[in-house]
Specification:
The structure holds three protein chains of three kinds. By secondary structure, chain B is an all-alpha fold. Chain B contains 26 helices and four strands. In chain B, the strands form two sheets. A two-stranded parallel sheet of chain B has the order 1-2. In chain C, the strands form four sheets. Chain C has a six-stranded mixed β-sheet, sandwiched between helices. In chain C, strands 13-12-11-14-20 form a five-stranded antiparallel β-sheet. Chain C starts with 5 loop residues before the first strand and ends with a strand. The chains are: A alpha/beta, B mainly alpha, C alpha+beta.
């Protein structure tokens, strides 16, 4: 009995040691996607096992950094292009040129955004747009119209009905935030983000928390990457999805980890991903991503959006800018929105109440109340730093050192937010008192 | 002869100390060091200063303490009456009460959070009904309310089981003597029963408190981030392993847990049980009105605490459950989906947790043996280190392991420990060690040394004595401790999530987490949760069988 | 409070189908020291707990001072009980333990302090007031338990084998102390024990119990000297039990032949319930200490003389215990104060001599007509 147990243990240890032909993939994609590709790739390449190490994007970046002395992964495979930018800067990605016949079919750009890295360290295999998904039952029950644009998120009638995930936790949300900041400019962008932040019912820790909350009807409208909406629709959930007019279509990419244990298998996987067969997998209803091969859309399911023909975009996404200020933006978002959500929400609730009271009180001179409200709105829409400072070397550098400057900045931002939201609430309450 | 004894015990102790040092002290020390050093590797308290200067962290600290206290408070309101009823009254369905009331421990709290969301959430069953009937809703699950609610329902059994053991150990005559002196009812409870059950109650509350401030899954699932554990996790996984704030928070968590352990230490020494161990306490038959009230209370308490289970079962059969009281489309697909995976998740879970439980039993028995039977000078240190994991959050241990074991090939495995499943086994073993140590300690104390001496005087050598006399006598305690280690490891997420090297190597709790990560996998995750409930439920049931309803002794600290 | 009279009427208690106490009726007068004596499982503790109110009888009524209290809960009976394991509360000091009952009675602070001090003095424990029970020796714990009960001046004092956890020497000391204390206070006391010496030494009256019923009730001397039936004879004191039949009745003496064929003469005392007739079957008891052991050729005044062979002899200082074989059975004989008398060893031929007055007829069955 004891001997057989020992044998079993030895076998198990050996089984994990005797590394078969593998390709180890670090990915943030949902199960449906990596499972679909695992099955398809393994069928095409018998003898190679796809090993998945599921990590959320930022955790994946951290993981590759931590394991650089002896990399354990072959492939890095996530949505957010700036994560690849970061890894490339750190020298963690291997250069590769996929076969010409594959690359020839893929256009160089989607909109204004280059699909592949110019230096050949990562390759777009699908494109994604960002947009809004909503629960039809929920909106009907709460008598709300469907949203169309980012600016709709700031509408007072959506107060407490929205959901987003924190950009610090979700690479795709970070991209959405960057799209908004680049589309509307720093100041206006933050004003929109702060106002819609005040309308959020919840700020989830996981990107999947958003579609989950919308699908279950915990909240009505969520800010998501397109395939969350598309796949939910495909599976019969009572939800809809829309791309706002100002958006960016950004490639989701794949890159080979420098010094990974199975370089040949890694190349095979990248080739497969970009091949026609590999691209077709994206059309499966539970994956629902947009391929980078324009010709393939002829074979797409009905009503499938084609980013190469329909006009999507309108924002020239600046990848380098996004990547450079990434740490600052996500920390800023956390400290003025995520962690101060209760205060932000309270401020906007007061503002809406005051506005409603002013709107109802006809015929009286409410100029003072109106100016108080305007001031309150301003206080609740201000970012603590300007665009220049966000890209400042000292500031971005603070996030990579133990000097304590980062803590100091974060304290400043937090206190700034606390003070502003308290002020906004107070002003709005004053206005409300005047309007009554 | 005498010298021989000391030599063997001594080397055993040094071996154990070395082992615990490598797998507990060193990793935790590394985490500590990050928090205490600057860029140049010099010792500094700057980061701690910053911690207390930051309003966010002060708020998180306050929230963590508050949620711990609230969970203990509300948990006590459920747990103490249930424990008292179970220990003092005789009625039909008592065994059901004892089994059902441990069931909350069976599901990982984060799964409970998701399920409870479907029932009590914003658009959950209850609120949809309230909106339909009264056009009103109750924010059960918003912010910290939700966190405290989920955690109370999950952790109250710790208080209950410990209190019940304490109550069962109070000899009947102590209460009878008070009745004889004219004391009864509430006064009797306050003046005699309460002070006597305090050790168990405090131990249970302490475990609940520590587990609450360490709990990561629940706040993350409910999107409440201003808590210490959540902040530590967010910091370490977002900004990276070099983010010093995450480590500072880890250290604060450890200090908090240690402080509470230390503060309650006089209640925690098993030896301090002052009751005279003779004569079983009397159970009274319940009848009439009192019986009705008691059953009503049990029904209510258990009904509420089993809500997450109900939610999970419904969810596992749901295809579409969107803004409706019950799912609108049902399916069996979720079970079909997971059935192909279950063998692999279940296999992993069983493999890891059974090995960990086995190791815990061995280590626990060895440590308890030294604590009870030897007079070696280092045994207090051994005791302290073996108890330490109670105070170390899973996140901290996991981070420590990554720091220590990553990047170099572990001898005998041919690759870093962190890329092998063995790291999970080690993490579980370390995390649950205190349970088996305590269980074996309690069991060993019941075995009088003369029983061993009798065997030796009849010619059995030391090993044979231990094997033939001591082990059979303490087997119940060992098995129960092992089962507790098994059961609680099955639902362990905090360290799992950070240490799983690849998805194929994930245990069931990780599987649920991954399923819950994909928008359409929620129901499949719930189905996997049902499997986990069954799996762990069987474990809990076995614990009860072995321990004859006194499973609580193993949950003691 | 004034000591009370206790009356039990046809008390019965069963667990499941098993009656542990049945048909017990008795009356204990004020100030008595009354003992339930019997082997373990005879129902004596159940009976005591019935009086305290911890056990609700299935049959019968308990009266305190003529008042039925069967349905009165323990905390209203005002009956003090000392538990076998003392049941001292480990979380309270000695002082707090003793003060407990007074606090329950809402006594004033000064009164409590005064009374507790007195009670502790009474049991010789002045200096231990601030200690915890676990810091006391067994004898001290026992006395705290006693003080705790006495301080509330209960109507009846119930003692459940209070000396059984003490070592032999301490037990003897405490026995005397208990005796003095009870006689001083004059409190009605009911005592439960399986130790016949304790019962004989302390009690004014004893009830010997067997399998849930009282088999004999009486003063210690009566119980010892006139046991009714072999159970009492065997349980109270040491005994040599015989069965046999009466071969001849001669005025105040009867000649008896035991089943083993031993012949002896028994005096027919006035206490005997009925004189046996010739041919009647009888049970006999001879106490070991009534038998003298002499050399086979020694002359003695006693009319009963049995030859025997020593099987075992144990010298104990104040007495020698012998086991002697006679007509195929063994007979116990205790020679008290053996100083100056011969000492016999295994294998020695001896004679056992005893007076007819020491041959007690404990049971008589009339000859079958």
């Amino acid at each position: 009995m004891r001997r057989s147990l020992f044998t079993l243990l030895t076998l198990l240890v050996l089984a994990t040691v005797a590394v078969a032909k593998e390709v180890v993939i670090v990915t943030s994609f949902p199960k449906e996607l990596f499972e679909g590709y695992k099955k398809a790739f393994e069928a095409k390449n018998p003898g190679i096992t796809v090993v998945i190490n599921s990590k959320q994007t930022n955790a994946g970046v951290t993981y590759l950094r931590e394991t650089r002395s002896k990399p354990e992964a072959d492939i890095f495979w996530v949505s957010a292009p700036d994560a690849f930018q970061t890894l490339k800067t750190d020298g963690l990605l291997e250069k590769y040129s996929p076969p010409k016949e594959i690359m020839a079919k893929i256009p160089a750009k989607i909109g204004t955004f280059p699909i592949h890295d110019a230096d050949g360290t990562y390759f777009g295999f699908a494109v994604s747009g960002y947009g809004l998904m909503w629960n039809r039952n929920y909106l009907q029950a709460h008598k709300l119209p469907a949203p169309k644009e980012w600016t709709d998120l700031a509408n007072s009638k959506y107060f407490n009905h929205l959901v987003i995930s924190a950009p610090s936790r979700s690479g795709t949300t970070h991209l959405t935030v960057e799209v908004i900041l680049q589309a509307y400019g720093w100041e206006k962008g933050w004003a929109l983000l702060l106002n819609s932040g005040g309308n959020m019912g919840a700020i989830t820790e996981r990107s999947f928390g958003v579609p989950e909350a919308v699908v279950t009807g915990q909240y009505g409208i969520g800010v998501v990457i397109d395939f969350f909406g598309l796949s939910a629709i495909a599976s019969g959930q009572p939800v809809d999805f829309v791309y706002p007019s100002l958006t960016s279509v950004v490639p989701a990419s794949v890159g080979i980890v420098k010094g990974g244990p199975n370089p040949d298998n890694a190349k095979a996987f990248v080739n497969y991903l970009l091949s026609e067969a590999g691209q077709m997998v994206l059309f499966s209803p539970d994956i629902a991503r947009l391929p980078v091969l324009p010709d393939l859309y002829a074979k797409a399911p009905k009503n499938y959006p084609n980013p190469f023909t329909t006009k999507l975009g309108g924002v020239d996404f600046n990848d380098a800018l996004s990547s450079a200020r990434r740490d600052v933006v996500i920390s800023l978002f956390d400290h003025v929105i995520t962690f101060r959500h209760a205060e932000l929400k309270a401020a906007w609730e007061s503002i809406y109440k005051a506005e409603e009271a002013v709107g109802k009180a006809k015929g009286r001179d409410l100029a003072q109340a109106q100016s108080l409200i305007a001031e309150a709105r301003k206080a609740a829409s201000q970012p603590p730093i300007d665009e220049k400072k966000a890209s400042d070397k000292d500031v971005t550098g603070a996030f990579k050192s133990k000097s304590g400057l980062k803590a100091q900045l974060e304290i400043e931002w937090e206190n700034f937010a606390r003070a502003n939201y308290a002020k906004a609430k107070e002003l709005a309450n004053k206005a409300l008192a005047l309007a009554r | 002869m005498r010298r021989g004894v000391d030599w063997r015990q001594g080397s055993l102790m040094w071996a154990l100390l070395a082992l615990l040092g490598i797998f507990i002290l060193y990793p935790v020390g590394r985490v500590l060091w990050v928090a205490l050093s600057d860029d140049q590797g010099r010792l500094t308290l700057l980061h701690f200063g910053n911690f207390f200067r930051r309003p966010l962290f002060r708020e998180a600290l306050w929230n963590s303490l508050l949620s711990g206290v609230l969970v203990v408070l509300f948990g006590s309101l459920i747990a103490v009456p249930l424990a008292y009823i179970g220990a003092r009254y005789e009625f039909r369905g008592k065994i059901a009460l004892q089994t059902l009331s441990t069931l909350p421990l069976v599901i990982p709290p984060f799964v409970g959070a998701v399920a409870l969301q479907m029932i009590l959430g914003r658009s959950g069953m209850v609120n949809l009904l309230l909106m339909r009937w009264f056009d009103a809703s109750i924010p059960f699950m918003e912010g910290m309310t939700g966190v405290v609610l989920v955690q109370t329902l999950h952790f109250f059994p710790f208080i209950m089981l410990n209190t019940a053991v304490s109550l069962a150990n109070i000899e009947a005559s102590l209460e009878e003597a008070a009745e004889n002196m004219g004391c009864h009812g509430w006064r009797l409870f306050r003046r005699v029963t309460l002070p006597l059950m305090l050790p168990g109650y405090i131990a249970g509350s302490l475990i609940a408190f520590i587990r609450v401030i360490d709990d990561l899954g629940t706040p993350l699932m409910l999107n409440f981030k201003n808590l210490l554990a959540a902040q530590a996790y967010l910091r370490i996984t977002t900004i990276g392993i070099d983010d010093v704030d995450g480590y500072v928070i880890c250290v604060v968590l450890v200090v908090l847990s240690l402080a509470s352990l230390f503060g309650a230490r006089k209640y925690l020494a098993v030896a301090e049980y002052a009751t005279v161990q003779r004569g079983a306490p009397v159970s009274r038959r319940l009848s009439g009105k009192k019986r009705a009230w008691v059953l009503l209370f049990i029904g209510l308490a258990l009904g509420v605490s089993l809500l997450p289970h109900i939610g999970i079962v419904i969810l596992s059969f749901a295809k579409i459950w969107s803004f409706s009281i019950l799912p609108t489309v049902y399916t069996l697909d979720n079970y079909v989906e997971i059935l192909f995976r279950v063998p692999h998740f279940v296999k992993n879970t069983l493999l890891y947790t059974l090995i960990a439980a086995g190791l815990d039993v061995l280590l626990g028995a060895a440590i308890a043996f030294l604590l009870v039977r030897s007079r070696l000078r280092g045994r207090n240190l051994l005791d302290a280190i073996a108890t330490l994991p109670l105070a170390i959050p899973g996140v901290v241990l996991a981070v420590g392991f990554i720091r220590v074991f990553h990047g170099w090939d572990f001898p005998g495995i041919g690759r870093p420990l962190t890329s092998s499943w063995i790291i999970l086994v080690i993490a579980y073993t370390v995390r649950r060690l205190p349970y088996t140590v305590r269980a074996s300690y309690a069991a060993l104390q019941q075995v009088h040394v003369s029983l061993e001496e009798a065997a030796q005087s009849l010619g059995a050598n030391r090993f044979k004595t231990y094997w033939k006399v001591t082990v059979p006598l303490i087997a119940g305690g060992l098995v129960a401790g092992g089962l507790i280690a098994f059961v609680t490891s099955c639902v362990e997420l905090a360290s799992t999530i950070m240490l799983v090297p690849r998805i194929e190597l994930g245990p069931i709790s990780y599987g649920i987490y991954i399923y819950m990560q994909s928008p359409l996998g929620r129901s499949a995750g719930a189905a996997l949760g049902v499997v986990a409930i069954v799996l762990v439920g069987v474990g809990t049931y076995l614990t009860h069988r072995v321990f004859a309803g006194r499973a609580g002794t193993a949950f003691r600290v | 409070m004034k000591p009370a009279q206790v009356k039990l009427e046809n008390i019965g208690k069963r667990y499941g189908e098993q009656w542990v106490v049945r048909g017990v009726t008795l009356q204990i007068e004020r100030g008595e020291f009354y003992t339930f004596l019997g082997p373990s499982g005879c129902g004596k503790t159940t009976l005591l707990r019935t009086i305290a109110g911890f056990v609700a009888p299935d049959e019968g009524v308990v009266y305190l001072d003529g008042e039925p209290v069967t349905d009165v809960p323990p905390w209203k009976r005002d009956v003090g009980m000392v538990f076998q394991n003392y049941a001292l509360w480990p979380h309270l000091t000695v002082f707090e333990n003793v003060a407990f009952g007074l606090r329950e009675r809402r006594a004033a602070r000064e009164e409590i302090a005064e009374k507790v001090k007195l009670a502790l003095e009474q049991v010789d424990l002045k200096t231990t007031a601030d200690r915890r029970p676990s810091q006391l020796s067994g004898g001290q714990q026992q006395r705290v338990a006693l003080a705790r009960t006495l301080v509330i001046q209960p109507r009846v004092l119930l003692l459940d084998e209070p000396l059984s956890n003490l070592d032999a020497k301490l037990r003897a000391e405490m026995r005397l102390e208990l005796l003095k204390l009870q006689r001083d206070l004059g409190i009605t006391t009911i005592y439960v024990t399986h130790d016949q010496e304790e019962a004989l030494a302390l009690s004014t009256r004893i009830a010997v119990m067997d399998r849930g019923s009282i088999v004999q009730e009486g003063a210690p001397r009566e119980i010892y000297e006139q046991p009714r039936g072999p159970f009492v004879a065997a349980f109270v004191g040491k005994s040599n039990l015989f069965e046999g039949s009466v071969t001849r009745v001669d005025g105040r003496a009867a000649e008896i032949e035991t089943l083993e064929g031993i012949r002896m003469t028994a005096a027919l005392g006035p206490l005997l319930p009925s004189s046996p007739a010739r041919g009647a079957r009888v049970a006999l008891n001879i106490r070991p200490e009534a038998i003298a052991v002499v050399r086979p050729d020694d002359a003695t005044p006693f009319s009963n003389r049995l030859p025997g062979k020593v099987l075992a002899s144990a010298y104990q200082g104040s007495l020698v215990e012998y086991e002697i074989e006679c007509s195929g059975r063994s007979i116990k004989a205790n020679v008290i104060n053996p100083k100056g008398k011969p000492l016999f060893h295994r294998g020695d031929e001896v004679a056992m001599v005893f007076a007819p007055e020491d041959v007690l007829i404990i049971k008589t069955e009339s000859p079958i007509a």
